User: What shape does this take?
Amino acid sequence: MDVSGRASQVTECRVCGKSDWQDVVSFGQMPLANGYLEPAKSYPDELYFPLALLSCRSCRLLSLSLVVDPELLYRDYAYVTSDSNMIRNHMRYVAQTCQKRFEMPADSLVVELGSNIGTQLKEFQSAGMRTLGVDPAENLAEIANAAGVETLPEFFNAETAESIRETHGPARLILGRHVFAHIDDVAGIAAGVSQLLAPDGVFAIEVPYALDMLDKIEFDTIYHEHLSYYLVGTLVTLFERHGLRVVDVERVGVHGGSIMVFVGLEGSRWPVSPRVPELIALEERTGLYEDAAYHRFAQSIDQIRKDLPTLVRGLLAEGKRIAGYGASAKGNTILNACGLGPDELEFCSDTTDLKQGKVLPGTHIPVCTPEYAKAHAPDYYLLLAWNYAGEIIGNERAFMEAGGRFIVPIPVPSVVGP
Assistant: This one.
């Protein structure tokens, strides 16, 4: 399908403005990772775009080489916040940490960017906070509003921030959990944050940590929605350029390894935590400001792209049946990058209503309910939602006791048994 005008090439770094790029890895033409499709005999209108990763030699931002039109990606969105115990507990932790660390009184205004169906904001509501969600996905904003979480179906920018301040007052906390990496115009976000924050307010973001991504070979994090992959040092550079200041950072285990980064206005009362320079020093010791680390990352990706199909097809040659577990966007990167499709996986099980009955982008593997999967249990599940491996394997003891096994694709393809 013709995609001209639906994407733009990245030239200047969105953090530092330089144009000295290191080519890291290219996957060629790839479908949109959340572009789930209705079953059909053929898919001539399915959208494909180049997917390649670059590293800025000036500030070490990891960036996609292409920005797909966000109107295409987000106005109708299939990803719904996970209801796993791990994520629920983490959301509670995020709310408690922000309140305690930054002394937020009851009735403070919390604004969340990319608020999805409002699950995180409910944690702040339970603590007596006023909340407002901002999410461009009209289908998800409708769900959130129906659930009592006021949500604007908009993209956040300076204009949106001005309107919110006029109607709701200044925000004590602006939160962006796993949305900041999706944003191209980070300068516009910084301008909106500066306009909306109260003097002692905090902008808290959570992003996949590039250090963990490289260390654990988490190449499945790379898809068209994730425009940026950040180091702490890169974020310090970004916010300093826009009159903001990183005051604290914390490593957390969700989504394969992430960082919570807390940002204040330049003149705010919050001191800079020692954890900020400590993590930058770790990044430097690990070599993440040099080309060699990114060469090694690309070589490790190539190895997984060879080893995983070999493992899967070897099991098929033994007469084993294989299916996918978790119709995640990350999993779609794995399948398409490794050339695995319906010849290898019979179906993919997922708990998300919006995905069930559809087919995965690119591979067109059917997505089924957990009930169907249980009734048609394979010999092996390829664990596409591997970042929930501990919880999933714990919940699937009956499957494993009956002889079932899991294939964990990252960081080294391996089989997990009882």
